[in-house]
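lol ok so funny story. i was supposed to be doing the assay writeup but got distracted and ended up predicting the structure for this chain instead. priorities right. anyway since i did it might as well share w the group, maybe its usefull for someone
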Amino acid sequence: MIVALAGGVGGAKLADGLAHVLGRDLAVVVNTADDFEHIGLHVSPDIDTVMYTLGGVANAETGWGVAGESWNFLDQLSRLDGPTWFRLGDRDLATHVLRNERLKRGERLTAITGELCRRLGISARVLPMSDDPVRTVVHTAEGPLAFQEYFVGRRCEVPVTGFTFAGIENAQVTKDVQAALSGGETSAVVICPSNPFVSIDPILHVPGMRALLLARDVPIVAVSPIIGGAAVKGPAAKMMRELGLEASSKSVAAHYRGLIEGLMLDHADAPLSPAIESMGMKVRVTDTLMKSATDRRRLAQECLDFAAALARPGASP
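and the output, tada:
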């Protein structure tokens, strides 16, 4: 059993590669701090991106949303002067309506996600980081912004000064995530190439999560989302610069220092290996850009091989 931490398009791509290699032997813990309520519906963008990608129905051009989407609902919403800044396609809308209806009945987000995944033929377990509400707040010179207002509404153009996770102090690790991380079969944890600040940090900040990760005493490896000083997709590198950090895989290593034992870098960042290894972690250099399904599966297998090479003597296989 492998546990992956993921959020966003890059995380979903590697999770998809891992799912093809591992099948049922994969649990993906997904960020829910970018969830929000829109036109009366509970929207879970990172869960949906992972779910649609693993289910083979994601829009290949955008990385998010559903392939073959239509926009009749959005067109009519615009005609009626409704909010259209966050685009909900007709097929995607079905997910949000069903999720919202079941949440109102008191069902757990974890159970709802599991059922949706089964309907999409996904064998891996997709687990929300918590069933309790957590919301990322982006701090800027203009004041605090809700994450989706910053990410979609403002297109990440506002410089950031920091992040907080509203509600995190009351969030609990679900019994499902606890079982995945505490199970005797779990042999490694993979942190996908997701934004460290707004995709992975919310997961790690759920009370008790980091302790669970470290208590299992298995290799924890991460794939850097930065290649040659730039993010493949999303604002991670921009955020680093605005926070006064070097936009590089070295900053990713420093961010995860004390948690991970190994970091996978792209060939473009191979010269950073000595500096990263001086932080007390191992480095493996490979091609981390995932342009195809073959790339995803290759990188997934390399992550597993890397973790296996780092396994402690006497640790569970």
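The chain is about 40% helix and 20% strand. The two ends are 10 Å apart (CA to CA).
back to the writeup now i swear
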